[in-house]
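Q&A log
Question type: sequence-to-structure
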Amino acid sequence: MPATTTTAARTAASRTAGTPRMTVTGSTLVIAGPPAGASRPPRTPQGPYRRLFARPGTRGFTAGNLLARLPMGMFGVSAVMMIAGQRGSYALAGAVTATGLAATALVAPWTARLVDRHGQARIAVPATLIAVLGSLSLIACVRTGAPAWTLFASYAATATTPNIGGMSRARWTHLLRDSPAAHHTAMSFEQAADELCFMLGPVLAAFLCSAVFPEAGTLTGAALLLTGMLVFTSCRATQPPVAAAPRKGSPLRALGPLLPLFLVTGVVFGSMEITSIAHLDARGLGASSGLILALQAAGSCAAGLLYGTLRPRSLKACVGALAVLMALPWAAAATGSLPALGCALLLAGMATAPTMVTAMSQVHALTPEGRLNEGMTLAVTAIFAGIAAGSAGSGLAVESVGPTAAYAVPAAAALLALATTVPGRSARRASDRSRVVRTAAARDPR
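Response status: OK
Response body:
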């Protein structure tokens, strides 16, 4: 075959859409790029969570975040089982844990303010060490029969535990400040992680305290907290920078319209848990009630992950769904059917995560620059205060009207949450608005 014919055949065969063009000049093979406008083979689309954790450094601080967050659902149950088992008094155990919650409500915002002012690593590690020493002191005091006041003092020292969820959300906000959609996905993941840890934490604590030894839950929680915090703070590349400019504005004043919503939402959570425990105990389930209660957390966890792949809804719509679905357990309990109650708790839990994700997004938007961790800690503190109030209120309702009628308390609290939702459009920082810049690269279908 003549050389010219061979060259022409090679060139024609290579001129297919989207493939490089080749030609032979003498003894030289020349490869040209694809013609202008040629389409490239499409890449396999990645899910939003896969894209989220493809960012450098995100997997490292998330691993530490999950390790340190799991003990948040362990410490209360572990302390109650340890103190009640060794001292024989649930009243003392409840008083000690209640004191710890009160101390946390006072200390946590100050710890968060120091984190915002001096950086996560500089404050979180020593604050965690103080909390771990408080846990170890509690174990020692319980074991040695020390006076009751030492138990209160030891557990109060754990109030310095940093808000690891808030610090993780602050990192996502720093990394995704120009990507609102990715930020929404990250906040949904964080809420799902909250639900997962608060679902697994009490189960793990109860198992360790009963199957190993009474102090095992507190000891394991302290070890996980310290290890996770060290891993989290070692990821310096993703840590939000400390603002050099003076911090203006008060998070408390900025979040004033939102804090009642967080407070009443906490009442929903606390009252639903206590009422369900009382109702299931009256049905003779005992220890098996934990599996049914876990359905609410499982529903919230699943809904949180799904919500991260969808377009965010308004806060009013999310709280409205919460108000509707929180009435289902009341109706299901009235039927006397345990499967119906389980399904109702699962559906009620599915309204929790979208509400919290959307409300936390409002916290991000309204909190003054450089004080985000403090703002989120104030929101969490309001939730804890609501949980305490809801637990107490539902306990009184159970005693006065019975465990079935007491389901009216979380249903009414959800309606009150809807009434306290601030009307109007969602706030958004200017830095959170997405920008489209058309360049030559923007026409690349990759």
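Response note: The mean pLDDT is 78.
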